[in-house]
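BUG-314 | component: ligand-complex export | severity: low

The export step for iron/sulfur cluster jobs runs without errors, but we want the raw record kept on the ticket for reference. Input record follows.
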Amino acid sequence: MKDRFQRDIDYLRISVTDRCNLRCFYCMPEDGIDKKEHDDILRDEEIISAVKAAVKLGLKKIRITGGEPLVRKGIYTLIKNISTIDGVEEVVLTTNGLLLKGNVKRLKDAGVKRVNMSLDTLNETTYKNITRSTHAIDYHAIITELIEENMQPIKLNAVLLKGINDHEIPDFIKLADRYNLHVRFIELMPIGQLDYNYKQHFISKDDVLLKYPELQFEKKYRIAEYYTMPSHKGKIGFINPISHHFCDQCNRLRLTADGNLKPCLHTNEEINIRQLDSIELYNTFKQAIHQKSSRHSLHKNTKPIDRSMNKIGG
Ligand code: SAM
Ligand code: SF4
């Protein structure tokens, strides 16, 4: 369905949980406070009903996200049940990857076509600092497993954090070359309660390109701008919601784990979908599409929205 600005809204991002096995400092509170009770989180049947209503309006691409989606109990069955709904063309997943090892085939069998793995650093100590956890991640093994299962293109997403991981850009370019990956650098967004210095850590795509002029522009594809490094395999993408907003390309709605439809990531506007029958669900999705604004107003230095990213579904 087209919205008021003639954008074709065909993409639904579903957060299946607000829980996570990491605590990335820019995403969620360290103590993970304000966890929802089990009953506050959409049940499998509610998610399925929501997807059935959404496909009727032409939302045919589904992204499963969170929190960390792979910590949800029964996630493989839920994904299978979503991917087999009539009208669902593609189910993809965003994950921090910690639970991917040994499970890629299972995900593929459940219907996941591609995986975006979030990885902000290739350094073990920095990983622990960013994620405020004691975990380590064997990303080589995971990437290898994704390649073996033919889940290309494999996209690795890294939030750029000035003074923390920006010096690792050449390492990410080498990793993209080694495995023929799409490494995508995402600009840090001011979302939720900022208990760190946002301005100190923000770094824009233009800052990066000034430092690495050898990166050659290839193409713009939806929300990402892709570059290549001469004589290297793989692609380097930039997702620039702050410096070069892409709202005119926005094709999505978000469904939060507690059952709220969000027309835009950067506003507090939400429409609850719990307890609705199939006709009401359909009408509510339609209303959410209608309510989408033309663009976000982060450039106006407005207050960050209340929900932290883990409670929205990035
Ligand atoms: N746990 C999964 C993961 O990390 O991929 C899925 C959920 S996470 C909220 C989805 C994406 O949002 C991750 O790539 C994460 O880095 C990104 N993200 C979270 N907070 C962000 C912020 N403030 N600015 C930019 N990206 C953010
Ligand atoms: Fe968890 Fe993903 Fe947020 Fe990190 S970015 S805390 S992995 S939900």
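Assignee comment: Attached the raw record above. The chain has one domain: 11-311.
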